[in-house]
Amino acid sequence: MIYLTRKAEFSSSHFYRNPAWSDEENVRRFGKCANANGHGHNYTLEVTVAGEVDPVTGFVVDLKLLKDILEEQVVSVYDHRHLNYEVPEFKDSIPTTENIAVAIWKRLNGKIPGAALKRVRVYEMPDLFADYYGEQQ
Amino acid sequence: MIYLTRKAEFSSSHFYRNPAWSDEENVRRFGKCANANGHGHNYTLEVTVAGEVDPVTGFVVDLKLLKDILEEQVVSVYDHRHLNYEVPEFKDSIPTTENIAVAIWKRLNGKIPGAALKRVRVYEMPDLFADYYGEQQ
Amino acid sequence: MIYLTRKAEFSSSHFYRNPAWSDEENVRRFGKCANANGHGHNYTLEVTVAGEVDPVTGFVVDLKLLKDILEEQVVSVYDHRHLNYEVPEFKDSIPTTENIAVAIWKRLNGKIPGAALKRVRVYEMPDLFADYYGEQQ
Amino acid sequence: MIYLTRKAEFSSSHFYRNPAWSDEENVRRFGKCANANGHGHNYTLEVTVAGEVDPVTGFVVDLKLLKDILEEQVVSVYDHRHLNYEVPEFKDSIPTTENIAVAIWKRLNGKIPGAALKRVRVYEMPDLFADYYGEQQ
Amino acid sequence: MIYLTRKAEFSSSHFYRNPAWSDEENVRRFGKCANANGHGHNYTLEVTVAGEVDPVTGFVVDLKLLKDILEEQVVSVYDHRHLNYEVPEFKDSIPTTENIAVAIWKRLNGKIPGAALKRVRVYEMPDLFADYYGEQQ
Amino acid sequence: MIYLTRKAEFSSSHFYRNPAWSDEENVRRFGKCANANGHGHNYTLEVTVAGEVDPVTGFVVDLKLLKDILEEQVVSVYDHRHLNYEVPEFKDSIPTTENIAVAIWKRLNGKIPGAALKRVRVYEMPDLFADYYGEQQ
Questions:
Q1: DSSP designation for A129
Q2: From the list A11, A32, A126, which residue is nearest B80 (CB)?
Q3: C16, C32, D56, E6: which sits with the fewest CB atoms below 10 Å from its CB?
């Protein structure tokens, strides 16, 4: 068993708001992240898959295929988008780094032929990231 | 004469739109950057000043003072803001990396006691940045 | 369960010396790290906590609170300090990267409300780091 | 138990070719990586070992010794070499990132006194890396 | 006048050899870089252009066009190639970092509409790079 | 004319103190940097030289020779040292980033055969650096 990790990037807007709270409560809890015009980040995504090395190719997973899946399932949907307004999973959940990692797991899980999804890591900033390993852990 | 450079960061939203053009023309020229909901970046700012080293302190400029000036003049205005909607200089100019660099120069020039502003560098992404050296160059 | 990691930095001096050894033995074992005037590093700390995502906030842990805890428990004590002379846990243990990671675990464990401390990583240099996962592992 | 990780680098050439396939099939499967003149990378290696901290030294493993082992067992063999033509383990296996990680594990396992080899990570590019944890996992 | 810099990457093989010298002399002068099987690097290219900001677009140069020019003129020719064997300008000159920077300047100069080429920077490794500013400097 | 830049690193201790001031004044002016036990950094040095490319070697300067000069003139003197106590030029000047850059210029200028020293850049932290171009600029 070997683990392969590929990175991708997307640049998106978001803000933090719980609609059950008043504007004042949102600012008190989320500070400047509550600004409803949104702010943005260069997100970095690391996707880790695991499997046996195919002795014919030396690959766990075809790199081009993995890149295409990340592009189709995640980057084309998130990049240059406002996460709150344009990405369906954030209509009802706040696009925190934690929730973005879980959402990307759901988008990718079961879509990568021949390898198991093991970890989704999302960096919002170089000094802050979330890891999700699926429900088993 | 010695040059001192200090970095700062801000996370902002923006989009590219020329109001003189139709929506179609904006998309044709700016691609996905024209999305009016905005997208965002972790911008990195590098500000370079120059002067003689003060023999009493060993400094060109007091580092704490320089940090405070960057915070007050730039970061507090741009960070966690939507540049098009909330920063006055981008009411009438498109917040491209080039225009952001020029706007930051105007905000900082003449505000740093005892040292001359020499360069403003703005990274929109790690692989794209603009440098402005003022009008003299 | 999701894992959240936040980075912090501190710039400190240290040296390696076992008081049970002669000066010659310390130099033989620790090389230039034994220099009693000390040398220094920009340390990078990565702290990983885990927990359930709060559906109300989208957070495992409040980011501002986590940052304040790292500042209060670690950065304010270690930054711009000589670890051997000014940080109590290194009176009797050598401030190697390994020992620093364990010491920071002890400083943080049990102090983060609502989330479990999972890993402390300390980089002494970009090419050398130690990970501590607590006693259970 | 604490984990210590040390990085090393090597700059090598390689290409991807399965000798059981025609030239056309190799290009179809491996794209530009099949070019038999080879292309190259600055590889980054991260080696993680684990053990108890020696109370006398504060080390899991002597850093100088670990560096020397990486140099002798890996860097001196791989660096400035064409992996397909000059490194014996790639006579019969394709030097993919996955296979390189496994090969380095075999070179290092059992060679590090007093500490257990836990992980070998190989970056081929900053956005692609493989992790190998040995057969037990 | 404002300066815009865009990065690109290519992964290539090369070696250093002066055909006027014996094998021994090549090894004596170039060390392990003389190995005729080649070794390789992840090269990073930074191209800087300068011009006035177009008030209609906010751009010095259209970013998509600049990216396409770098791809067409440099990356498609150098990436996943053996520079000595497959890139014409290195038939008669050694592909050192210095010579690669000059060669890329010649490939790009005059090809970027509306902006002046100002600098070509080539990183062979993160700790070594060459800058070429054209003949005027 | 082409410019070649090579990086090196050193890990050192320092503190800021003007002996003409009281302890209180030193703290007031230099804050936590005035702590006389010292603190430390992983400094990164970038040295830029310029010259014509030698058509026989493709080099501005022999890379091994340049590395050896940096090692001998700077790294062996500064690395794992307390700059205030152990490096002669800081007996009478405060080891600020600015003064370190000037001191390294003086150590290197005239020592690099066949190439002109053009710039010394010293990073104290990733977000703070000083550039010195010699007296002519």
A1: E
A2: A32
A3: D56
**E69-89 tens-digit pLDDT:** 999 999 999 999 999 999 999
D abuts F (3+ Cβ pairs < 8 Å): no
Domain residue spans of chain E: 2-132
DSSP structure string for A20-81: TS-HHHHHHHHGGGG-TT-EEEEEEEEEEEEEPPPTTTS-SS-HHHHHHHHIIIIIHHHTTS
**3-state SS assignment for residue D84:** helix
DSSP label at residue D52:
P
Residues of chain A with pLDDT > 70, as a percent, come to 99
SS3 content of chain B, % helix, strand, coil (to 5): 35, 30, 35
Mean per-residue pLDDT pooled into runs of 10, chain B (137 residues):
98 97 96 95 98 96 96 98 97 96 98 96 98 85
Active site residue E39: no
Q: Out of A25, A71, A72, A80, which one is annotated catalytic? A: A80
Q: Report, as residue numbers or ranges, the catalytic residues of B.
A: 33, 80, 124
Domain covering B2-132, topology = Tetrahydropterin Synthase; Chain A (3.30.479)
pTM for the whole thing? 0.97
Complex ipTM: 0.95
What's the rounded Cα separation, in Å, for the pair A57 and E49?
Answer: 42
> Cβ contacts of residue A64 below 8 Å, gap of 6+?
D31
Chain E: nearest CA to B79, how far in angstroms? 21
The answer to whether B108 and A59 are in contact (CB under 8 A) is no
SS3 at position A1: coil
D110: left (phi over 0), alpha (psi -120 to 50) or beta: left
Contact residues for A21 (Cβ-Cβ < 8 A; gap 6+): A29
Among residues D18, D86, D10, the alpha carbon closest in space to that of D47 is found at D10
Residues 80-119 of chain B whose Cβ lies under 8 A from any Cβ of chain E: 93-99, 101-102
Q: What is the pLDDT of residue F72?
A: 98
Residues found in chain E: 137
Quick check: D108 and D117 in contact, CB under 8 A?
yes
Q: Using the Cα atoms of residue D73, residue D79, residue D85 and residue D86 in order, give the sign of their dihedral.
A: negative
Q: Which chain F residues are closer than 8 Å to B3 by Cβ? A: 130-133
Q: Please answer whether residues D137 and A1 qualify as being in contact, where contact means their C-beta atoms are separated by less than 8 angstroms.
A: yes
The neighbouring-strand residues paired with F130 are B4, F122
Phi/psi class of residue A38: alpha, beta or left (left: φ > 0; alpha: ψ in -120 to 50)?
left
Q: Which amino acid is at C95?
A: P
Distance in angstroms (rounded) separating the CA atoms of residues F21 and F18:
6
**Which residue in the block uniquely carries the two structure tokens 């950094």?**
F41
- For residue C46, give the 3-state DSSP assignment: strand
What is the reported pLDDT for C78?
A: 98
Find tokens 């409300």 and name the residue: C113
Instruction: Spell out which residues of chain A touch residue B71, defining contact as CB-CB under 8 Å.
Output: none
In whole angstroms, give the CA distance from residue E101 to residue C3. Answer: 44
Q: Tell whether E13 lies on the interface with F, counting CB pairs under 8 A.
A: no
